[in-house]
Amino acid sequence: MARQVVKFTKMHGAGNDYIYVNTMLYPIPSPAAAATAWSDRHKGIGSDGLVLIGAAKAADADFSMRIFNADGSEAMMCGNASRCIGKYLYERGLTRKTAIRLETLSGVKTLQLHVSGGTVDSVTVDMLAPRFCEPTQYTPELCDAPGGRLLADGCEFAGTFVSMGNPHFITFVDDIQDIDVSRYGRLLERHKAFPERCNIEFAHVEDDGKIRCRVWERGSGITQACGTGACATAVAAAKTGCAGRTSSIVMDGGTLSVRWDKDDNHVYMTGGAEFVFDGEIPLP
User: Fold this and answer.
1) How many CB atoms lie within 10 A of CB 207?
2) What confidence tens digit (pLDDT) does each residue in 242-256 have?
Protein backbone atom coordinates (compact mmCIF):
# COMPACT_ATOMS: atom_id res chain seq x y z
CA MET A 1 0.00 0.00 0.00
CA ALA A 2 1.35 3.41 -0.98
CA ARG A 3 2.08 5.77 1.87
CA GLN A 4 -0.05 8.90 2.19
CA VAL A 5 1.57 11.98 0.64
CA VAL A 6 1.45 15.28 2.51
CA LYS A 7 1.83 18.74 0.99
CA PHE A 8 4.08 21.05 2.99
CA THR A 9 5.53 24.54 2.88
CA LYS A 10 8.97 25.46 4.15
CA MET A 11 9.25 28.95 5.64
CA HIS A 12 11.70 30.87 7.78
CA GLY A 13 11.64 33.81 10.14
CA ALA A 14 15.07 35.41 10.51
CA GLY A 15 16.60 32.12 9.38
CA ASN A 16 14.67 29.99 11.90
CA ASP A 17 13.27 27.46 9.40
CA TYR A 18 10.35 25.11 9.88
CA ILE A 19 8.18 22.79 7.81
CA TYR A 20 4.54 23.92 7.84
CA VAL A 21 1.58 21.59 7.23
CA ASN A 22 -2.08 22.58 7.07
CA THR A 23 -3.51 19.74 9.15
CA MET A 24 -7.05 20.79 8.25
CA LEU A 25 -6.21 19.21 4.87
CA TYR A 26 -3.40 16.82 5.79
CA PRO A 27 -3.64 15.26 9.28
CA ILE A 28 -0.32 14.11 10.76
CA PRO A 29 -0.99 11.08 13.00
CA SER A 30 2.57 10.89 14.38
CA PRO A 31 3.95 14.46 14.42
CA ALA A 32 6.99 13.64 16.59
CA ALA A 33 8.13 10.94 14.14
CA ALA A 34 7.44 13.23 11.17
CA ALA A 35 9.39 16.09 12.75
CA THR A 36 12.41 13.87 13.35
CA ALA A 37 12.41 12.34 9.86
CA TRP A 38 11.60 15.46 7.86
CA SER A 39 13.91 17.82 9.79
CA ASP A 40 16.99 15.78 8.94
CA ARG A 41 19.14 18.06 6.76
CA HIS A 42 20.73 15.14 4.91
CA LYS A 43 17.91 12.61 4.55
CA GLY A 44 14.81 14.77 4.91
CA ILE A 45 13.56 18.23 3.98
CA GLY A 46 15.83 19.92 6.49
CA SER A 47 14.52 22.26 9.19
CA ASP A 48 14.54 23.25 12.84
CA GLY A 49 11.27 21.37 13.27
CA LEU A 50 7.67 20.82 12.17
CA VAL A 51 4.76 23.25 12.64
CA LEU A 52 1.16 22.07 12.41
CA ILE A 53 -1.49 24.64 11.45
CA GLY A 54 -4.96 23.62 12.58
CA ALA A 55 -8.44 24.67 13.57
CA ALA A 56 -8.71 26.33 16.97
CA LYS A 57 -10.33 24.58 19.91
CA ALA A 58 -10.48 27.72 22.05
CA ALA A 59 -13.53 29.92 21.43
CA ASP A 60 -11.42 33.10 21.39
CA ALA A 61 -8.93 31.86 18.75
CA ASP A 62 -9.00 31.71 14.95
CA PHE A 63 -6.41 28.99 14.30
CA SER A 64 -4.07 26.77 16.28
CA MET A 65 -0.35 25.99 16.16
CA ARG A 66 1.61 22.99 17.40
CA ILE A 67 5.40 22.85 17.14
CA PHE A 68 7.67 19.82 17.21
CA ASN A 69 11.43 20.31 17.44
CA ALA A 70 13.90 18.50 15.23
CA ASP A 71 14.36 15.86 17.95
CA GLY A 72 10.62 15.18 18.10
CA SER A 73 9.95 16.97 21.38
CA GLU A 74 6.97 19.32 21.44
CA ALA A 75 7.61 23.02 22.06
CA MET A 76 5.28 25.36 23.90
CA MET A 77 5.69 28.38 21.64
CA CYS A 78 7.79 29.81 18.81
CA GLY A 79 7.71 33.50 17.92
CA ASN A 80 9.30 33.07 14.50
CA ALA A 81 6.88 30.28 13.59
CA SER A 82 3.87 32.34 14.67
CA ARG A 83 4.90 35.17 12.33
CA CYS A 84 5.27 32.67 9.49
CA ILE A 85 1.81 31.28 10.22
CA GLY A 86 0.36 34.78 9.99
CA LYS A 87 1.88 35.24 6.53
CA TYR A 88 0.83 31.73 5.46
CA LEU A 89 -2.79 32.15 6.55
CA TYR A 90 -3.20 35.51 4.84
CA GLU A 91 -1.30 34.97 1.60
CA ARG A 92 -2.66 31.43 1.08
CA GLY A 93 -6.21 32.75 1.44
CA LEU A 94 -7.22 31.03 4.67
CA THR A 95 -8.22 34.37 6.22
CA ARG A 96 -8.66 38.03 5.33
CA LYS A 97 -8.10 39.13 8.90
CA THR A 98 -5.05 41.25 9.65
CA ALA A 99 -5.41 40.58 13.39
CA ILE A 100 -5.32 36.82 13.98
CA ARG A 101 -5.77 35.03 17.28
CA LEU A 102 -3.48 32.00 17.37
CA GLU A 103 -3.94 29.21 19.90
CA THR A 104 -0.65 27.78 21.26
CA LEU A 105 0.33 25.61 24.19
CA SER A 106 1.38 28.79 26.03
CA GLY A 107 -1.87 30.66 25.43
CA VAL A 108 -3.65 32.54 22.66
CA LYS A 109 -1.35 35.02 20.90
CA THR A 110 -2.48 37.93 18.75
CA LEU A 111 -0.74 38.39 15.40
CA GLN A 112 -0.95 41.85 13.84
CA LEU A 113 -0.18 41.59 10.13
CA HIS A 114 1.40 44.57 8.35
CA VAL A 115 0.11 44.19 4.78
CA SER A 116 1.04 46.07 1.63
CA GLY A 117 -0.40 45.22 -1.78
CA GLY A 118 -1.65 41.84 -0.61
CA THR A 119 1.73 40.86 0.84
CA VAL A 120 2.49 40.50 4.53
CA ASP A 121 5.65 42.56 4.98
CA SER A 122 6.03 41.90 8.70
CA VAL A 123 4.11 40.64 11.70
CA THR A 124 3.89 41.92 15.27
CA VAL A 125 3.16 39.23 17.85
CA ASP A 126 1.78 39.96 21.29
CA MET A 127 3.88 37.50 23.28
CA LEU A 128 2.03 38.31 26.53
CA ALA A 129 3.80 39.02 29.82
CA PRO A 130 7.18 37.51 30.74
CA ARG A 131 7.58 35.49 33.91
CA PHE A 132 10.72 35.13 35.95
CA CYS A 133 10.20 31.95 37.96
CA GLU A 134 8.55 28.80 36.70
CA PRO A 135 8.94 26.17 39.44
CA THR A 136 8.33 23.29 37.03
CA GLN A 137 10.93 24.60 34.58
CA TYR A 138 13.56 26.24 36.79
CA THR A 139 14.86 25.18 40.20
CA PRO A 140 16.95 28.10 41.57
CA GLU A 141 18.29 26.09 44.53
CA LEU A 142 20.04 23.80 42.03
CA CYS A 143 22.14 26.65 40.63
CA ASP A 144 25.86 26.31 41.27
CA ALA A 145 26.27 29.68 42.96
CA PRO A 146 24.14 32.60 44.22
CA GLY A 147 22.60 34.93 41.67
CA GLY A 148 21.56 32.18 39.27
CA ARG A 149 25.12 31.28 38.31
CA LEU A 150 25.61 28.00 36.47
CA LEU A 151 28.73 25.96 35.75
CA ALA A 152 29.37 24.32 32.38
CA ASP A 153 32.63 22.50 31.73
CA GLY A 154 34.48 24.63 34.27
CA CYS A 155 33.08 27.99 33.09
CA GLU A 156 30.66 30.01 35.20
CA PHE A 157 27.73 31.76 33.54
CA ALA A 158 25.70 34.46 35.30
CA GLY A 159 22.26 34.73 33.79
CA THR A 160 18.59 35.61 34.03
CA PHE A 161 15.76 33.11 33.76
CA VAL A 162 12.80 34.35 31.71
CA SER A 163 9.75 32.38 30.66
CA MET A 164 7.99 33.51 27.49
CA GLY A 165 5.67 30.52 27.71
CA ASN A 166 8.82 28.43 27.30
CA PRO A 167 11.99 28.59 29.44
CA HIS A 168 15.04 30.73 28.61
CA PHE A 169 18.34 31.36 30.37
CA ILE A 170 20.06 34.51 29.09
CA THR A 171 23.70 35.13 29.88
CA PHE A 172 25.57 38.27 28.81
CA VAL A 173 29.12 37.56 27.66
CA ASP A 174 32.11 39.73 26.75
CA ASP A 175 32.99 38.04 23.44
CA ILE A 176 29.88 36.97 21.59
CA GLN A 177 31.71 35.82 18.46
CA ASP A 178 34.15 33.46 20.13
CA ILE A 179 31.76 31.83 22.60
CA ASP A 180 31.40 28.11 21.85
CA VAL A 181 27.61 28.04 21.58
CA SER A 182 27.48 24.33 20.75
CA ARG A 183 29.68 23.28 23.65
CA TYR A 184 28.17 25.42 26.39
CA GLY A 185 24.63 25.55 25.03
CA ARG A 186 24.40 21.76 25.01
CA LEU A 187 25.57 21.56 28.63
CA LEU A 188 23.47 24.44 29.95
CA GLU A 189 20.30 23.15 28.26
CA ARG A 190 20.49 20.06 30.45
CA HIS A 191 21.81 21.68 33.63
CA LYS A 192 20.31 20.29 36.84
CA ALA A 193 18.63 23.68 37.46
CA PHE A 194 16.34 23.03 34.47
CA PRO A 195 14.27 19.87 35.08
CA GLU A 196 12.49 20.36 31.73
CA ARG A 197 15.65 21.53 29.92
CA CYS A 198 16.03 25.12 28.75
CA ASN A 199 16.68 27.39 25.78
CA ILE A 200 20.01 29.19 26.15
CA GLU A 201 20.83 32.68 24.84
CA PHE A 202 24.34 34.17 24.79
CA ALA A 203 24.06 37.94 24.39
CA HIS A 204 26.17 41.09 24.22
CA VAL A 205 25.12 44.77 24.11
CA GLU A 206 26.93 46.40 21.20
CA ASP A 207 28.28 49.95 21.08
CA ASP A 208 25.31 51.07 18.97
CA GLY A 209 22.84 49.79 21.57
CA LYS A 210 21.73 46.78 19.58
CA ILE A 211 21.89 43.42 21.32
CA ARG A 212 23.78 40.64 19.55
CA CYS A 213 22.36 37.25 20.48
CA ARG A 214 23.30 33.67 19.64
CA VAL A 215 20.94 30.82 20.42
CA TRP A 216 20.96 27.21 21.52
CA GLU A 217 17.35 25.99 21.32
CA ARG A 218 16.01 23.22 23.50
CA GLY A 219 15.41 20.22 21.25
CA SER A 220 16.96 21.75 18.12
CA GLY A 221 20.48 22.94 19.01
CA ILE A 222 21.99 26.00 17.31
CA THR A 223 19.41 27.91 15.28
CA GLN A 224 19.67 31.06 13.19
CA ALA A 225 17.13 32.82 15.39
CA CYS A 226 14.58 32.27 18.13
CA GLY A 227 11.60 34.60 18.52
CA THR A 228 10.85 33.78 22.14
CA GLY A 229 14.61 33.91 22.77
CA ALA A 230 14.82 37.42 21.30
CA CYS A 231 11.95 38.49 23.57
CA ALA A 232 13.52 36.87 26.62
CA THR A 233 16.86 38.52 25.82
CA ALA A 234 15.26 41.97 25.50
CA VAL A 235 13.44 41.48 28.80
CA ALA A 236 16.60 40.29 30.55
CA ALA A 237 18.55 43.28 29.21
CA ALA A 238 15.91 45.71 30.46
CA LYS A 239 15.54 43.94 33.81
CA THR A 240 19.29 44.04 34.47
CA GLY A 241 19.70 47.64 33.26
CA CYS A 242 21.71 46.75 30.15
CA ALA A 243 19.14 48.32 27.82
CA GLY A 244 15.81 50.10 27.69
CA ARG A 245 12.42 48.54 27.09
CA THR A 246 12.75 48.61 23.29
CA SER A 247 15.58 46.68 21.67
CA SER A 248 16.87 45.49 18.32
CA ILE A 249 17.96 41.89 18.78
CA VAL A 250 20.53 40.88 16.15
CA MET A 251 20.58 37.12 15.65
CA ASP A 252 22.53 34.99 13.20
CA GLY A 253 19.63 34.98 10.71
CA GLY A 254 18.34 38.52 11.06
CA THR A 255 17.16 41.29 13.37
CA LEU A 256 13.96 41.36 15.43
CA SER A 257 12.43 44.39 17.12
CA VAL A 258 11.19 43.78 20.66
CA ARG A 259 9.24 46.15 22.92
CA TRP A 260 8.40 45.39 26.56
CA ASP A 261 5.42 47.63 27.21
CA LYS A 262 5.43 49.22 30.65
CA ASP A 263 1.64 49.68 30.74
CA ASP A 264 0.31 46.19 30.04
CA ASN A 265 3.63 44.36 30.76
CA HIS A 266 3.30 42.51 27.44
CA VAL A 267 6.20 41.86 25.09
CA TYR A 268 5.66 42.77 21.42
CA MET A 269 7.92 41.26 18.77
CA THR A 270 8.06 42.46 15.17
CA GLY A 271 9.84 40.80 12.27
CA GLY A 272 9.50 39.35 8.82
CA ALA A 273 8.58 35.91 7.50
CA GLU A 274 9.49 34.29 4.20
CA PHE A 275 8.35 31.41 2.03
CA VAL A 276 11.18 29.10 0.93
CA PHE A 277 9.48 26.40 -1.14
CA ASP A 278 6.50 24.02 -1.34
CA GLY A 279 6.66 20.27 -1.79
CA GLU A 280 5.17 16.87 -1.16
CA ILE A 281 6.48 14.10 1.07
CA PRO A 282 5.12 10.73 2.25
CA LEU A 283 4.27 10.23 5.91
CA PRO A 284 7.04 8.37 7.77
Assistant:
1) 5
2) 999 999 999 999 999
